[in-house]
Fold this sequence. Notes:
Blueprint: E1 29-34, H1 45-52, E2 56-60, H2 67-71, E3 77-81, E4 88-89, E5 100-106, H3 109-118, H4 120-123, E6 127-129, H5 151-162, H6 173-186, H7 188-195
Parallel strand pairs: 1-2, 1-5, 3-5, 3-6, 4-6
Keywords: S-adenosyl-L-methionine, Transferase, tRNA processing
EC number: 2.5.1.25
GO molecular function: tRNA-uridine aminocarboxypropyltransferase activity
Amino acid sequence: MSRPQCSRCLRPVSHCLCALIPSLDSRTRVLLLQHPSEVNHALNTARLAALGLSNAQLVVGEVFEDLATLLNVPGYQARLLFPADDAQTLKAYSPSDQPLLLVVPDGTWRKARKMLHLNPLLAALPRVTLAEGGVSRYRLRKAPGPGALSTVEAIAQALQVLEAPVSFEPLLKPFEALIEGQIAAMGDEVFQKNHG
């Protein structure tokens, strides 16, 4: 039997995170393209990011038939937040810069690469990346490499850089509560054994 679920954050009602989710404005528009396998994942950080940002949109799929429309937002220049040899490291906007439509694939690295393969328009976007050295607060998983962040962490860090000195730290509050709740549920001994 399933537990009652919050219709907004999709967490069990007893573990609803809505009270911690901010409502942040940003100059940058964020388009999250979420792989279907992530929707019901217990640690759905893309949903937390979309709920916490007033200028964000979450679209679920693997092939996006309407991608051209999603990317054509007047007043914004689309950039894919995804590593590549030719990716530009994000830097703060100058007053004359056109804001970005920051396109963020959400899924495992393998699934995100598959989404790029299945959506040539997505793969063709100019890429941007975060500066090296980001440290994840996601203490429940082994990162595939240094600087690997969860989706909400990557978005918060990107916005922090682009829109400095505005703080996007509140975006991480529900994420941190989610991690703390998972650790509490497994117990300290199990956490230390598997993740400590």
